[in-house]
């Protein structure tokens, strides 16, 4: 089974698998601030490296483009990785897209799509403890620390938990 989420749309994003035509844009948004955090990305991340990543996308490792609402500008990437009994998500976004809520909106949409299409699936993410912005994003979309180390050196493992379907008001 391919773990592609096909196409998702939110108010500000269009999310679909990366295609070969995305290589130049992907290379341009994947700078040192990204490659220093993502262990499998080479530095510098060239157009050839982008083509290789896109060509290898499929099956258990699918990289999705996060575009603007018109579907033209590449703002980021969300990877969905099928691992034994669970899905791992990872992401990176262009410097120009950071701090605007785009990543939160897109990651939340991918999580919602995974939950809807794969009921009961476990969803995890890994994050460096010092990466405050990424940890905050993961918390906003429902991830909680597991207390376990991630598979990659220097990473902590987080697990997604559905928000309760109720609200308690305290007077």
Automatic annotation (TrEMBL):
<keyword id="KW-0808">Transferase</keyword>
<protein>
    <submittedName>
        <fullName>GNAT family N-acetyltransferase</fullName>
    </submittedName>
</protein>
<dbReference type="InterPro" id="IPR016181">
    <property type="entry name" value="Acyl_CoA_acyltransferase"/>
</dbReference>
<dbReference type="InterPro" id="IPR000182">
    <property type="entry name" value="GNAT_dom"/>
</dbReference>
<dbReference type="Pfam" id="PF13302">
    <property type="entry name" value="Acetyltransf_3"/>
</dbReference>
<dbReference type="GO" id="GO:0016747">
    <property type="term" value="F:acyltransferase activity, transferring groups other than amino-acyl groups"/>
</dbReference>
<dbReference type="InterPro" id="IPR051531">
    <property type="entry name" value="N-acetyltransferase"/>
</dbReference>
<feature type="domain" description="N-acetyltransferase">
    <location>
        <begin position="13"/>
        <end position="161"/>
    </location>
</feature>
<keyword id="KW-0012">Acyltransferase</keyword>
<comment type="similarity">
    <text>Belongs to the acetyltransferase family. RimJ subfamily.</text>
</comment>
């Amino acid at each position: 089974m391919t773990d592609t989420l096909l196409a998702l749309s939110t108010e500000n994003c269009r999310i679909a698998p990366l295609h070969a035509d995305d290589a130049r844009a992907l290379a341009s948004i994947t700078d040192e601030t990204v490659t220093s955090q993502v262990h499998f990305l080479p530095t510098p991340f060239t157009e050839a490296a982008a083509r290789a990543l896109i060509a290898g996308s499929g099956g258990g490792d699918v990289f999705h483009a996060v575009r603007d609402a018109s579907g033209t500008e590449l703002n980021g990437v969300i990877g969905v990785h099928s691992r034994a009994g669970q899905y791992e998500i990872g992401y990176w976004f262009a410097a120009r897209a950071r701090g605007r809520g785009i990543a939160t909106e897109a990651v939340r949409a991918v999580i919602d799509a995974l939950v809807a299409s794969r009921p009961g699936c476990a969803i995890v993410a890994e994050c460096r403890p010092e990466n405050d912005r990424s940890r905050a994003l993961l918390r906003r979309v429902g991830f909680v620390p597991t207390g376990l180390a991630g598979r990659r050196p220097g990473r902590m493992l987080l697990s997604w938990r559905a928000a309760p379907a109720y609200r308690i008001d305290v007077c």
